Amino acid sequence: AQRVTQPEKLLSVFKGAPVELKCNYSYSGSPELFWYVQYSRQRLQLLLRHISRESIKGFTADLNKGETSFHLKKPFAQEEDSAMYYCALSGLEDSNYQLIWGAGTKLIIKP
Amino acid sequence: DADVTQTPRNRITKTGKRIMLECSQTKGHDRMYWYRQDPGLGLRLIYYSFDVKDINKGEISDGYSVSRQAQAKFSLSLESAIPNQTALYFCATSDLAAGEGNEQFFGPGTRLTVL
Questions:
Q1: Among B88, B95, B84, which residue's Cα sits nearest to residue B110?
Q2: What is the pLDDT of residues A29-64, one digit of tens each?
Q3: How far is A38 from chain B (nearest CA, A)?
Q4: Residue B13's CB: how many other CB atoms inside 10 A?
Q5: Interface mutation vs chain A, best among B100, B104, B105, B110, most A CBs within 10 Å
Q6: How far is CA B29 from CA A6, B43, B76, B111, in A?
Q7: Could you tell me the sign of the dihedral formed by the alpha carbons of B6, B8, B14, B17, in that order?
Q8: Residue B85 pLDDT > 90
Q9: Closest CA to A23 of A52, A50, A58, A43
Q10: In this structure, what DSSP letter does residue B83 have?
């Protein structure tokens, strides 16, 4: 079964500290992974996707097929990074292209 | 970004009432989705539509129905609202053909409370 697991509901770190939001997935085919972010009073939006291999707002995420993980990392957290983060998976073999969502991790950056 | 709009933004209703949530988009996307968001559960797909003539049930469609009136409009109805349908509801769109991959674009959400 397709599943996305974000083991931390809440993650609190100090400004300037490294951040790692964990995401593990279960999928039998070739997945496409995404991180979406929801800032306070803003709509949910795409942060990055593994296919693009880009860094957005200092965040990176590497797809590790061996560990079935797609952890989101940032070396130095900023207060404006405080938000709700969702990991999502879409199967490339599934023409329906539905997104399977993790439960989300609330990131709080303390000053 | 007003490309995906939802009305109403907030609604309080009573058990047994029929409620309609509306979603409109100006992005020209064929695919539209309705999700509900509950604390600790993330987003769960209710219904999705790939074009005006194509409607599909999602993970949690019981108690809900949808109507795709046009490419730009996708409405969600609660036939007889119950308290456990209290949640934040999101509409989203995507257009695979445009080369944007699977990125979904979200509306601002509708907060529904069923008393």
A1: B88
A2: 778 899 999 999 889 999 998 877 788 899 999 899
A3: 10
A4: 16
A5: B104
A6: 30, 21, 18, 24
A7: negative
A8: yes
A9: A50
A10: G
